[in-house]
Amino acid sequence: MKKGYLLFVAAVAVATVSCRQEKMGPEAETAASQGSLETKVVQLSDDYSTSSFQLKFASVPTEEMLSDLLESKGIASVEPLFVSRKDRKELESRFGLDRWYVVTLEEGANVHQEIRKAAGMASVAMAEYVCYPQKASDGIAYPAQELVQTKGTKDGFNDPMLLDQWHYNNQGSKTYSPTAVKGADVNVKDVWSRLTCGDPDIIVAVVDEAVCYTNPDLVDNMWKNDGEVPGNGIDDDGNGYIDDVYGFNFVDNNANINWENKDDSGHGTHCAGTIAAVSNNNRGVAGIAGGSGKKDGCRIMSCQIFSGRRGGSTARAIKYAADNGASVISCSYGFTVPFASDNAFIASTGSAEIDAIHYFEACKNNSVLDGNIAIFAAGNENHNYAHYPGAFYDIISVSAFGPDFLPTYYTNYGPGCNICAPGGEAGHLTGTKEQYQKSMVLSTLPKDIAGSDYGYMQGTSMACPHVSGVVALALSYAKQLGKKYTVQAFKELILASTDDIDQRIASTATKTYQTGWSIAPLNLAPYYHQMGTGAIDAWRVMMHIEGTPTETAQIGRSQWIDLTPLFGTSSTSLTYLSVEVPQETITSMGLDNVKPANDAKHPAIMDESGKACVQFGRLYVYPTKLGSGKIKITAVGGGDHVGGGNNPPGGMALTQEISLIARDVDGGNGTGGWL
User: Fold this and answer.
1) 38, 190, 461, 554: which has the fewest Cβ within 10 Å?
2) Whole-structure pTM value
């Protein structure tokens, strides 16, 4: 290759290290540039490129600085790592993206020698080996036979295979798993029917294997770059990438998004389907934010960083997502190397990927947030810590539970794991072959390599897109309501919107799981308070966005619900005027008739349907099935009657709305767990 450098480059064949830190100031980076080779050279994995490495300069390099590098016989070219966007120059500079360059070596050059020589330059702040991440999945897909005729609708949608997507609405059927538990899901069905199904303005970038954009259940929800004319070899929209219609291939550095490598598993396509497969289109599966069948689903952008056994630049993929409108990145990959702290992972001054993530989070691509949201898988090694980059303190990292609402045998847990979601878990050998597969997560696959457009996979890779899908759905609902948040506040809202998994863990000492061709016990004690804030609950997220207090009711028994969240500590002494229960709440939760106590001093205020009442300052209900809903309650503030007109002086009418989630276990307000 001819020696030289390019001010802008459309593709660089590298894969970057994942790491995260607060942005360094000029003094710190100047000190780093004057440090020893040991503090300036970073290698985070034994799996690295021998043909290239990356440099971060202490300041934007001059032509003279780059020429100095090219004097080495081992260096073929020095090029900017990132494609620059004219309207975001200030933001690129703030996060140091304009100081990152990739160095490509001459054939036969020694990467260790060349990286140390480059690090010895006073102008270089950091020299980084190009290390390759791993997918957070075993990479095994089990094709599923497509059902083309609906057996009946479920959750208001007509997707025939939705019946087997227990991870959206788990009714405890043994067809999923011999140990399936009601409510081990993301609780999304009532969100679809009453609140939102998605919004095409919300784009989720799948940073993973290629997304099969021809899959019949994805094609209508794929992000499409309308400014690009496909196949003409021209960068029509001027974004620095040629023919990037559905995204970009950062492995081969072209617009040919390719899911047909013999070593591919369909990993990216599977994640994409969970996020936003087209819902209610009378075929296949549904996606969490896939719309209602009216082309109103969230969009999927494919940022390909894996092709078979080869990797591509995660840093450039993340910046591409930021620059082309993504509001969420769903990243089911990471590094298995353990680190004692975020700073230990960073090792010295930072890395290309963390700078790109900071840049992504700071870009504003939607009307709801002042930036964007990054979500990562926690990892599948059963380690008692999350893997980086998801382990960073301010990135959402997702652990996995199975259809039994217990931690999966493979999931990472503990420090750095912020929240959990369905990841699937292969059924036991004691079950049927169908149960073995159906206990995993069902989603889309590339038919070219899987033999079917649909199939099952498991891993925190599958848990991650569940959270990504719920976040996309939440952004859709917040946009609908005209709500606005900071990125930090929205991340906190997501982590506070969970169901309690610790009660289930505490009540189950051990579980069995399949390992190889045998069954083994799994001690659950280490997972207690180690699965983040709990299990993501889509309905609870939407109620947080509305500002509606939410309580959990246990199915199968009558119970009193505390009204303090609605009316304060005086709730037990207020006079109540009415209770209103919509039919959709009665239907969703299967509310049965209640029989209040016969107490003259505390008369019951009954809903006209007889399905709920207020007595003793508490709400009385009897749910019989899983579901979610709202109930309106009116009380008097300042007396025992409402004043006004010819009435004696009285109080003010206070109407408040409470949200109820009926689950198979009691509790679950999002306050438990490690964070």
Assistant:
1) 38
2) 0.91
